[in-house]
Amino acid sequence: MHGLLGLAGALLALPLCAQPLAQPAAEPCARARDPVRCEARLAALKVCAAKRSAEKQACLAAHMPPVDCRRSQDPRGCAAAQRAAEICRGKAGTELRQCLRDAQPPKTSSKRPAAA
Questions:
Q1: pTM of the model
Q2: Which residues touch 65 (CB under 8 Å, ≥6 apart)?
Q3: Contact 85/99 with Cβ under 8 angstroms?
Q4: Distance between CA 116 and CA 84 in Å, rounded?
Q5: Which one is predicted more confidently, 26 or 86?
Q6: Which tens digits make up the pLDDT trace of 61-80?
Q7: Distance between terminal CA atoms of the chain?
Q8: Hey, what's the torsion of the CAs at 84, 87, 92, 98, to 10 degrees?
Q9: Closest among 71, 85, 65 to 33, alpha carbons compared
């Protein structure tokens, strides 16, 4: 009889233990820097789940909203990267990397030149 009560107590406690695992998908996005973009990313991942490789990258790019550069640590750099991505859309591999390098403005050094 004592073993039966212990088993019943364990079965009753089981749903309480399982609750933290059943979190809604939007909860991780509630703590994200950009919750709207996080939710859009999760939705895009669902839509593009069956695709692979370059086809998946193209699908994700089509379903994702642009980054909000106002929230970036480097808003100017973020905007420049977005412009470069627009210019190079449709390219892949080595051609894409070279296009992105050519499209981005050269980075300025924050160091002062050495005094002679």
A1: 0.52
A2: 36, 37, 40
A3: no
A4: 38
A5: 86
A6: 888 888 888 888 999 999 99
A7: 92
A8: -60
A9: 71
The radius of gyration of the chain from alpha carbons, rounded to an integer in Å, stands at 24
Q: How far is CA 80 from CA 10, 52, 55, 67, in A?
A: 58, 28, 25, 12
Dig out the tokens for 97 from the structure. Answer: 């990397």
Structure tokens at 45: 């991942």
Domain boundaries of the chain, sorted by first residue:
27-65, 69-105
Mean pLDDT of 28-57: 89
Taken as a whole, the chain contains a residue count of: 116
Cβ neighbors of 96 (< 8 A, separation 6 or more) are 88
Joined tokens for residue 27: 């909860």
Task: Enumerate the H helices of the chain as residue ranges.
Answer: 2-18, 27-30, 35-47, 53-63, 75-87, 93-103
> Is residue 68 a contact partner of residue 83, using CB atoms and an 8 Å limit?
no
